[in-house]
Amino acid sequence: MKRTIKIIKYIFLILITAIFLFPVVYMIACSFMSNSQVASMLDFTNGAYKEINLIPEMFSLEQYYQVFFRRPEYLLKFWNSVIITFPTVIAQVIVSALAAFAFAKLKFPFRDKLFFVYIVLLILPLQVTLVPNYIVLDNLELLNNFLAIILPGTFSAFGICLLRQSIKYIPESSIEAARIDGASYFKIFTNIILPQIKGGLITLTLLCFIDNWNVVEQPLIYFDDEAMYPLSIGLSDISNSDYGIVFACGVMFMIPALLIYLYGQKDIDSPFVQVDKN
Amino acid sequence: MKKDKLKKYSIRFGITFLIVIAFLTYFSGTIDNMLLPQVKVSDVAYGTINGEQSRDDRYLIPLSAVIAMGDTGSVFVTKTDENNKTTVSEATVNIKNSDDLYYEVTSDEMYGGMKVVYSTSKSISNGDRVYIVEE
Hints:
The complex is a heterodimer. Chain A is mainly alpha-helical. Chain A has 14 helices and no strands. Chain A is globular, with a radius of gyration of 23 Å.
């Protein structure tokens, strides 16, 4: 009986995994198909796809050849994504860690009230802040500039809330001991806090990376020049794109996010306290 | 140990991936042009072979530019867009006269100042992108 339940559990888990992995597998499979096969498969004229096939009729690298050698605009869009994402992630992690340290361990007037305001900001949907941000960026003459996405992304309330929770787990006594030994707050931050919230920092890096890597709304609103659009918009604009190329671009677009996940995979298991797993 | 290996390979693969993409992006224009059919073009000129006036617009086109089939034929004319990318489109022509160098043709799809392809490094078809070789 136990064995049967175990088998049923495994079948259920395999099915769930297959459902979640299907879009990725389908994208990879389609990227190796010829353009004509992809176009005939995704013929949407009668309101339904003609077929879903995971096996190419003829294995073809044509889509990758097109993306890497014949259609440089997709590579340029990839770099736009990099330009938007990497500075935002680095800046957001630095700013969030410093602010979270202040909110968690330093004592100053209205600290908790100010943090409450941050929580309120966290609850606000992105779309609510788009128009005020647009007006501010317009006044700062930052529209049609990558800073229009990097700057608002840097001061994210989410990162501060996440890291504050991580820092709160660090015992007060270790900070007091360091203060007695004459360590400055900056020294405490770099030598005591940061090493202990490594999991939280990697979690934030990963989440922030995914958030900015997949950005769609902000570039559409803040940029007039389509040459500045990141690849996420090129992929979402599938109706105007070549289907086969979109799949190859999708694979290219997935690789950095996947690598960052693989890099931090073990550390994000424990975002709140650094646990020695050895 | 396994964890460190995964991290090490992720970083190495990530850096390699970015370098390859950077290389391809930087040289994409060059690679793209190298892979395109290289064509030589000539201006479409108004005129007749014997120099007489004609009621309809007549053009003089090099012999090698026309794929002739009896009294009709086709030529590839080039079109350059705002991104400086050139494509070819096929135009039908009616052959009226010829000599050792030129066909005298009429066509509704042509006008003076157009450029016709008279030599190509690879076979081309309607809508193909090409690279114009300067002479």
